Amino acid sequence: MKLTLQALWNEGTERLTLSGIGEAELDAKYLLFEAFHTDMVHFLMHRNDEVKDEDSVKRAVADYRAMIEKRSERVPIQHITGSREFMGLEFSVNEHVLIPRQDTETLVEQVLKDYKGRNPVVLDLCTGSGCIGVSLSILGGFSDVTLADISLEALQVAEKNARELMQARWNPVRVTAERSEEKPWRLELSAGLADGTEKKAGVQKITLAESDLFSAFAGGRERRFDVIVSNPPYIPSSVIEELEPEVRDHEPRLALDGRSDGLYFYRLLAAECGRYLNPGGTVYFEIGYDQGQAVSGLLQEDGFRGVCVYQDAPGLDRVVRGTMVL
């Protein structure tokens, strides 16, 4: 039997189905397109053609089968391909960061809506891949965004995403880096025009900081922000073992575990954010679908006003917003 793209797709679908993958056909197709660098149009045109006996094609077949094998072991497809689209932007991901999810776009979209035409100073706590903070910088044009995380491995992923997306968005630009030799680790990326025109270089800035919540901004390093956003760990510890293997076994536990009731980090954030906000500053937290009332109550207890909850596309509670009136 001749080997065709259609036969490879069928082969991959069968393998993933036997492994219990819910969307086996879709995943097999996506990995096939990735391995052969093709799309649906070209697949439909050539799916029944026998694949060529060439080294490059043989490598693509081998790569595809290797990716199918990884997926059958419940490795997330985004870890296999190394990327995930978020807010129309392509973000690199690996085992050190949460895979950006569409639910989180609700938070970014709300900040962009609330601050349209404005230029707030933004802090993204527990930044992970940087998908929230970098998206706000790129899509909102916010010129001073700080990405903070306790994990150096996560910050390395966020740095890669910030560099690549800054270069893609403000092309032609030069992205310069100023790395602090002091601890905690800190890096400032600035994007400016490369042609030396009258426009000032470094007009767009993304700072990355190693920080256990606000630790990098305390003790003589105080900064104030107009907006603080965060997607903190919020899954109760007891629930983590019940998650799908793709999440439980392959995404960082540090970014998932919200301690006994899932609210541990919201308590800390509600208590501390006011110290680092400018008057009238606002916080936006992603939450679990059943945490809207609890997190709203924590913010109100710590002096936030105008607290409200926003739903995601399926209609589930997803974001809590509150404003600190000092």
UniProtKB/TrEMBL annotation:
Question: Per its record, what are the GO molecular function terms?
Answer: nucleic acid binding; peptide chain release factor N(5)-glutamine methyltransferase activity
- Spell out where the chain crosses the membrane: none
* Swiss-Prot/TrEMBL keywords: Methyltransferase, S-adenosyl-L-methionine, Transferase
Read off the InterPro entries from this record. DNA_methylase_N6_adenine_CS (IPR002052), N5-glutamine_MTase (IPR050320), PrmC_N (IPR040758), RF_methyltr_PrmC (IPR019874), SAM-dependent_MTases_sf (IPR029063), Small_mtfrase_dom (IPR007848)
Might you give the EC number(s) for this enzyme?
2.1.1.297
Query: Could you tell me what reaction this enzyme catalyses?
Result: L-glutaminyl-[peptide chain release factor] + S-adenosyl-L-methionine = N(5)-methyl-L-glutaminyl-[peptide chain release factor] + S-adenosyl-L-homocysteine + H(+)
Enumerate the residues binding substrate.
N231, P232, P233, Y234
Q: Name one Pfam family in it.
A: PrmC_N
Superkingdom of this entry's organism?
A: Bacteria
Record domain Methyltransferase small: where:
104-166
**Start and end residues of each Release factor glutamine methyltransferase N-terminal domain:** 8-82
Q: Which residues bind S-adenosyl-L-methionine?
A: D149, N231
Which GO biological-process labels does this protein carry? methylation
Q: Which family does it belong to?
A: Belongs to the protein N5-glutamine methyltransferase family. PrmC subfamily.
Role noted for this protein: Methylates the class 1 translation termination release factors RF1/PrfA and RF2/PrfB on the glutamine residue of the universally conserved GGQ motif.
Protein name as catalogued: Release factor glutamine methyltransferase
Organism name: Hungatella effluvii
